[in-house]
């Protein structure tokens, strides 16, 4: 089977196709890219760029900086500390990537994957390989990296080959002088007779010399050219009989080739069957060859090996060869392996898997890449997978192996198989795949009896159900053999995962404009100083006597130099230490989050884990929360609560949603009415008092009574832990009437209409499930043994029961089958197509004819079965009430009684289902119909044709399903509760009060999502539900426009709205034409539910809101399908614990339960926002105030850039004297305790409004700093300029003496500013503030003892009363305006926390207040003194 002509270039060589490797990278840096990329990230901060420029400027000698290296130390330290922090974060990502990439799986060894093109070794080959080595460490993949990988792989192969050659030479040294080991082959060739080769054909061959030695066939001119990379593996068809092998070539062997054809990915695995006698080849007719890739000729003599036949040939001198040259690739299916066959399964790292590799995945192993299922250990070619890393679902899903490859059971079968796969290109849709597996039927060319028009090619369609995606886990299946089609970043899970973004907090981004404003102030100061220096250059004064010609001879030149000198002089106006201080504060905030015991989940030993430390303040400004549903809001645990059978409802008790409503409204149970849904009157007994429906003891007592009644009717040894409770059920089941018969049919339908598999306890049986066909007999014995026992139901006094657990594709399905088990209709096993059910103690068998699978469009599933003791064929269907009611029988003919009965059943069932839905339950309807054998035969033929279709297979099957799912009779309905996680309704309610809007993005169907929305209080009964559902863009646009117009008309009302939209409609809504309308409609709604959305759509919705509204977003999820959403949001939260780890790996914070989001946002997030905002304002204040003191002095020194302070004081100002108080403010300050913050969720709105970091507040702080700097300079100047005040006559009004006094005022003012900005005054804050001021005086006292020219003796200034008088007056004058402004703002324009603080301080001491009454029910109690 040669490749098509499109695959060859003009020289007849196969066009090389390159596939990416299977290694994944979520880290941002590599070893080589870390330094440049991290520096780039850090220099995105404007301040870092500025100080880098100043360091360069200070290296110029003319500016008088004597030690520029010392000036660079602060910048270097900041860069190093930040780089260490980023490196530690990225190292964790690298370790996670390494763990994944080095995971192991079994792959086929000692064979060649021809999808990997040979690298042609040109002159620059090694140069390309070296470049590839370098690029790999930069995180790049291209043709150079593939050259390096190819060279490394060949190096390893050559080492292995040399080892094999030595072993072969030692073994056959005396018997086979011409023996050799083939490169990359899977067998060692022994001595074979010489064969003459057609030299003319050889000359015309396009094979390179080194590859021709591996081929044993002559090429004719008409034969298609073969690529050099696969010439040894896929020889072309010869014109007549194949020629025996030459002594310089190997036996042809298996080639499982996956290659690209046109724009598709194609996989080929084929090989010619040599040495086949003409007499054993018969013309191909349909049915003469089994439908398997292992059988490719019509017939052969039993037991005869093709490689042992004598083949006459005009090109050969010898017509036989020894059996030692036989290979597995030339053998038939079922033949033993060749003597020297080396093909086996070997362990391989995930990162080394290539497209086209055979892989064997064992039970409980992860799937390393996207693979097509060839065969499984199950006789029905089924395997079961857990997809929690893809969609968050923990339930099992079934996948089907291909029929044509189901015979592949061993590594030798893989070698003998010949086929190719046509695959669509990689795309992001997790739920769609289209491909075809093809193989050829070989027929001799000289056969004249071949029927014309008969295709000699067979094919199997490949759909989504035949593919295992990376991230899945194989369950309840011993092994799966598959072929890799997508690897690495082309797998669907990686296509749905965005790159790890570099996230910066909102305040960090907003700080840059403030820093730029400081630059503007700096530029103004420098320009004013330079201009005035030019003006004063020739003015009278002493400045010219001390410049020694440095300033030049003109005012212009002097002003030019002064501009750059003042840039250096005023450099502290830009707070370089701000960024590192913020990092320290946020690191401490991350530690407090990690240490919070209230967010620790003891069952899984999981604390809240911060993974990105620099965005903690963003947690206090989240306006939109985007949440997954399954596994995030819910436990993904379904409980069967109620049902209606033949018009009679069963089931007592209340749902979680009803209990939550009762607790919130404080209503008594008596006002809620009877919670049971029986249509018949309940018995008049005190146990049926309404309050008891919320009482666990009552429910347990009723359950005990219920199963005592069951035990009186029949033995059920499989009762588990039933959630369905109603003792009347077995009263009615025990009657001998039509209703009891319908109840039995209802239970049997639940036990049969599903795709679940039973799982038996290990203590009882070694059988894990019916999926393991090898243990079917043993399982049957165990089941019969258990069935014969007389174990009573729960709460009886004899032996215990044996519980069967069910693994299903959905938790709903598992709950239905488990409830049927508890009712006495036990699904025991399924062997091949026979289903065994224990019905009321007796074993019954049903032949499963067809399964009509569920999908989101059909909203139903059906099975067609035939009872073992009956000739009737029955269709059983379950699905949404809307689709079932549409397909119920309307024409009853003369059966008036049946028509009347069905009418009543429909009415009562519809009423009961509506009541169930109002209680937040997920409802389904059950129906059935009898099918005549004639109708079924005709329908089944059409079904088989649709199943074999390659194009539009799903659409054709749905059309066929519609033909049979009609004229059904209604049996009843079920109601299931999806258990929410603890505290979810309360958490959502509190988040709503805080002003946060919640959007739920889920892959579930619309009905399910709506029910969960009501259960968790995302949707309430007073909301207007807007459902947008369409199939076209125009229809979507019209519906959105209509909903917007309706919303505008109701703008004056207080009625809330909720939006529900499905995935197909969402795709159109996210288009350019509809995007703005969808966003506007979402803003009008209090809640939004997006259903059946793909991971990519989740990210698109997040980005739409994030960029369209310019708001802070948070995404929370638990599965790999949530990774894109998590990375697209400003803050990503991953749910850890029982679900997958993909979301946690990509998240910024990992929590174990959704309810922990409550405290994470409303306490830690709010604290972090307030602390960070206040701290940044404090940094700007202290640096501006210090810098302007230097500027005021320039007035008195002709603006020549002289420094007022000693340089040591300037250096230590930010490092020692003022750093700790402002940092401690950012770490420890609390406006309100955690308990009060949770009590008043509305406090969170301060962050939403950005009350503490507004632009006007920055300019007000700047004005305050300029004012206080002027007071700090002019007060000491005016008081001391008159002369000396030292009693001993020492001078105190010199330049540096006055500078020391002013610096002491400046340090104290900066520290007091931080102290007065505190909300809570604790002893650590008082100690740190006092110590910072004290350190200044200690330093001055010690520093002045040394004979420093400009500073010696300055300690005398501190011993005079005049100094302290000036000091106190200056401090008071500095803070009088600020304190007055704070008083006015607090009294007349208070913030929310000011009001609550006053309430707590004034009112609470006079009230008897219960400390716990405002704590959210279900949440861990907040500590009285949290961190």
Short description:
By secondary structure, this protein is α+β, with helices and mostly antiparallel strands. The protein is built from 41 helices and 36 strands. α38 (1295-1316) packs antiparallel against α39 (1323-1343).
Explained architecture:
- The chain is of the alpha+beta class and 1427 residues long.
- The chain contains 41 helices and 36 strands.
- A 9-stranded mixed beta sheet has the order 17-36-35-34-18-30-33-32-31, sandwiched between helices. Strands 20-19-29-28-27-26-25-24-23 form a 9-stranded antiparallel beta sheet, sandwiched between helices. A 6-stranded antiparallel beta sheet has the order 6-1-7-16-8-14.
- Helix 13 runs parallel beside helix 34 and helix 38 packs antiparallel against helix 39 (1323-1343).
- It is elongated and about 125 Å long.
């Amino acid at each position: 089977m040669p490749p098509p002509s499109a695959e060859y270039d003009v020289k007849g060589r196969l066009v090389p196709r390159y596939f990416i490797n299977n290694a994944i990278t979520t880290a941002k840096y590599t070893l080589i890219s870390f330094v440049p990329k991290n520096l780039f990230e850090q220099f995105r901060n404007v301040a870092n760029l500025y100080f880098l420029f100043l360091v360069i400027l200070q290296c110029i000698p003319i500016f008088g900086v004597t030690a520029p290296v010392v000036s660079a130390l602060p910048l270097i330290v900041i860069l190093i500390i930040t780089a260490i922090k980023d490196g530690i974060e990225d190292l964790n990502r690298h370790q996670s990537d390494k763990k994944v990439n080095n995971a192991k799986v079994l792959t086929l060894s000692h064979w060649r994957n021809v999808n990997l093109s040979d690298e042609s070794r040109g002159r620059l080959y090694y140069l390309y390989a070296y470049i590839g080595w370098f690029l790999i460490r930069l995180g790049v993949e291209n043709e150079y990296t593939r050259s390096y990988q190819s060279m490394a792989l060949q190096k390893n192969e050559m080492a292995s080959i040399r080892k094999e050659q030595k072993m072969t030479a030692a073994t056959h040294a005396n018997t086979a002088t011409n023996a050799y080991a083939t490169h990359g082959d899977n067998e060692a060739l022994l001595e074979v007779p010489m064969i003459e080769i057609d030299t003319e054909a050889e000359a015309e061959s396009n094979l390179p010399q080194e590859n021709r030695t591996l081929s044993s066939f002559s090429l004719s001119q008409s034969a298609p050219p073969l690529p050099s990379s696969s010439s040894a593996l896929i020889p072309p068809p010869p014109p007549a009989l194949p020629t025996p092998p030459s002594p310089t070539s190997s036996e042809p062997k298996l080639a499982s080739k996956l290659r690209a054809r046109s724009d598709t990915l194609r996989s080929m695995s084929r090989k010619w069957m040599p040495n086949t006698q003409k007499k054993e080849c018969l013309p191909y007719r349909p049915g003469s060859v089994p439908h398997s890739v292992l059988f490719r000729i019509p017939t052969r003599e039993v037991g005869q090996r093709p490689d042992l036949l004598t083949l006459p040939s005009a090109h050969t001198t010898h017509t036989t060869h020894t059996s030692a040259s036989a290979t597995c690739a030339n053998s038939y299916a079922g033949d033993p392996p060749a003597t020297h066959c080396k093909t086996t399964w070997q362990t391989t790292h995930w990162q080394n898997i290539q497209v086209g590799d055979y892989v064997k995945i064992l039970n409980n192993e992860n799937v390393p890449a996207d693979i097509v299922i060839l065969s499984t250990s199950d006789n029905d070619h089924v395997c079961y997978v857990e997809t929690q890393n893809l969609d968050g679902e923990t339930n099992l899903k079934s996948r089907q192996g291909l029929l044509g490859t189901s015979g592949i059971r061993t590594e030798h079968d893989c070698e003998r198989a010949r086929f190719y796969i046509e695959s669509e290109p990689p795309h992001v849709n997790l739920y769609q795949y289209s491909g075809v597996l093809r193989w050829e039927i070989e027929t001799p060319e000289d056969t004249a009896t071949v029927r014309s028009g008969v295709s000699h090619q067979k094919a199997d369609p490949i759909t989504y159900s035949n593919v295992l995606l990376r991230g899945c886990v194989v369950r309840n299946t011993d092994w799966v053999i598959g072929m890799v089609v997508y690897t690495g970043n082309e797998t669907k899970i990686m296509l749905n995962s965005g790159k790890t973004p570099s996230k910066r907090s909102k305040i960090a981004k907003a700080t840059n404009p403030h820093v730029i404003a400081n630059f503007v102030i700096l530029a103004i100061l420098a320009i004013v100083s330079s201009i005035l220096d030019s003006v004063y250059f020739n003015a009278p004064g002493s400045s010219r006597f001390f410049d020694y010609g440095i300033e030049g001879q003109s005012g212009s030149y002097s002003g030019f130099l002064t501009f750059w000198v003042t840039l250096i002089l005023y450099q502290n106006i830009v707070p370089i230490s701000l960024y590192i201080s913020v990092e320290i504060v946020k690191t401490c905030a991350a530690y407090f989050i990690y240490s919070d015991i209230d967010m620790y989940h003891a069952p899984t030993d999981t604390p809240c884990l911060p993974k990105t430390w620099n965005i903690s303040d963003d947690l206090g400004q989240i306006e939109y929360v985007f949440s997954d549903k399954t596994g995030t809001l819910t436990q993904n645990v379904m409980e069967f609560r109620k049902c209606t059978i033949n018009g009679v409802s069963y089931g007592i008790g209340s749902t979680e949603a009803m209990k939550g409503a009762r607790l919130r409204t404080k209503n008594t149970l008596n006002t809620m009415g009877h919670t049971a849904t029986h249509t018949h009157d309940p018995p008049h007994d005190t146990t049926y008092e309404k309050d008891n429906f919320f009482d666990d003891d009552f429910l347990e007592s009723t359950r005990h009574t219920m199963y005592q009644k069951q035990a009186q009717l029949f033995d059920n040894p499989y009762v588990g832990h039933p959630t369905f409770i109603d003792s009347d059920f077995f009263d009615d089941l025990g009657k001998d009437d039509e209703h009891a018969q319908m109840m039995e049919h209802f239970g049997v339908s639940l036990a049969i209409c599903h795709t679940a598999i039973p799982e038996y306890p290990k203590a009882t049986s070694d059988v894990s499930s019916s999926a393991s066909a090898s243990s079917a007999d043993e399982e049957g014995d165990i089941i019969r043994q258990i069935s014969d026992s007389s174990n009573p139901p729960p709460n009886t006094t004899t032996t215990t029961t044996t519980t069967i657990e069910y693994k299903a594709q959905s938790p709903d399905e598992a709950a239905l089958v488990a409830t049927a088990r508890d009712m006495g209709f036990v699904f025991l096993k399924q062997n091949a197509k026979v289903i065994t059910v224990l019905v009321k103690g007796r074993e019954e068998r049903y032949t499963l004819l067809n399964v009509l699978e569920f999908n989101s469009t059909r909203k139903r599933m059906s099975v067609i079965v035939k009872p073992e003791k009956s000739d009737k064929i029955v269709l059983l269907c379950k699905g949404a009430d809307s689709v079932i009611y549409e397909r119920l029988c309307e024409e009853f003919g003369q059966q008036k009684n049946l028509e009347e009965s069905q009418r009543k059943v429909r009415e009562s069932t519809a009423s009961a289902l509506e009541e169930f839905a109002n209680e937040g339950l997920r409802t389904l309807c059950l129906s059935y119909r009898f099918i005549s054998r004639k109708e079924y035969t005709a329908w089944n033929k059409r079904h088989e044709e649709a199943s074999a279709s390659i194009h539009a297979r799903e659409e054709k099957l749905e059309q066929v399903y519609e033909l049979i799912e009609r004229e059904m009779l209604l049996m009843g309905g079920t109601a299931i509760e999806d258990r929410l996680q603890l505290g979810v309704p309360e958490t959502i309610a509190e988040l709503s009060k805080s002003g946060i809007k919640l959007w739920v993005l889920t892959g579930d169907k619309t009905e399910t999502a709506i029910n969960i929305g009501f259960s968790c209080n995302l949707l309430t009964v007073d909301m207007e539900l807007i459902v947008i559902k369409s199939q076209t863009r125009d229809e979507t646009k019209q519906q959105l426009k209509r909903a917007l117009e309706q919303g505008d008309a109701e703008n004056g009302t207080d009625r809330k709205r909720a939006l529900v939209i499905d995935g197909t409609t969402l795709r159109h809504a996210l288009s350019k034409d509809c995007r703005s309308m969808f966003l506007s409609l979402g803003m009008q709604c209090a809640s939004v539910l997006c259903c059946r959305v793909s991971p990519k759509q989740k990210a698109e919705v997040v980005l739409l809101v994030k960029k369209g509204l310019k708001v802070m977003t948070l995404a929370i999820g638990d599965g790999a399908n949530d990774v894109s959403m998590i990375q697209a949001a400003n803050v990503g939260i991953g749910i850890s614990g029982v679900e997958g780890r993909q979301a946690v790996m990509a998240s910024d914070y990992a929590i174990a339960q959704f309810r922990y989001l409550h405290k994470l946002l409303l306490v830690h997030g709010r604290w972090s926002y307030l602390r960070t905002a206040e701290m940044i304002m404090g940094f700007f204040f202290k640096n501006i105030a210090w810098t302007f003191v230097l500027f005021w002095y320039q007035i008195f020194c002709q603006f020549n850039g002289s420094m007022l302070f000693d340089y040591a004081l300037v250096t230590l100002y930010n490092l020692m004297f003022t750093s700790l108080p402002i940092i401690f403010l950012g770490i420890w300050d609390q406006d309100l305790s955690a308990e009060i913050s949770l009590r008043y969720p509305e406090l969170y709105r301060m962050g939403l409004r950005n009350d503490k970091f507004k632009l006007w507040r920055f300019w007000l702080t700047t004005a305050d700093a300029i004012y206080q700097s002027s007071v700090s300079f002019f007060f000491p100047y005016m008081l001391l300029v008159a002369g000396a005040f030292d009693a001993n006559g020492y001078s105190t009004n010199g330049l540096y003496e006055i500078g020391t006094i002013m610096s002491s005022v400046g340090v104290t003012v900066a520290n007091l500013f931080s102290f007065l900005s505190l909300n809570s005054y604790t002893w650590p804050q008082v100690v740190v503030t006092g110590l910072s001021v004290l350190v200044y005086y200690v330093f001055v006292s010690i520093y002045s003892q040394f004979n420093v020219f400009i500073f010696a003796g300055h300690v005398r200034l501190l011993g005079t009363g005049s100094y302290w008088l000036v000091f106190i007056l200056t401090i008071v004058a500095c803070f009088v305006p600020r304190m007055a402004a704070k008083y006015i703002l607090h009294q007349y324009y208070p913030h929310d926390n000011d009001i609550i603080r006053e309430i707590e301080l004034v009112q609470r001491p006079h009230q008897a207040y219960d400390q716990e009454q405002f704590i959210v029910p279900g949440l861990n109690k907040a500590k009285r003194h949290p961190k």
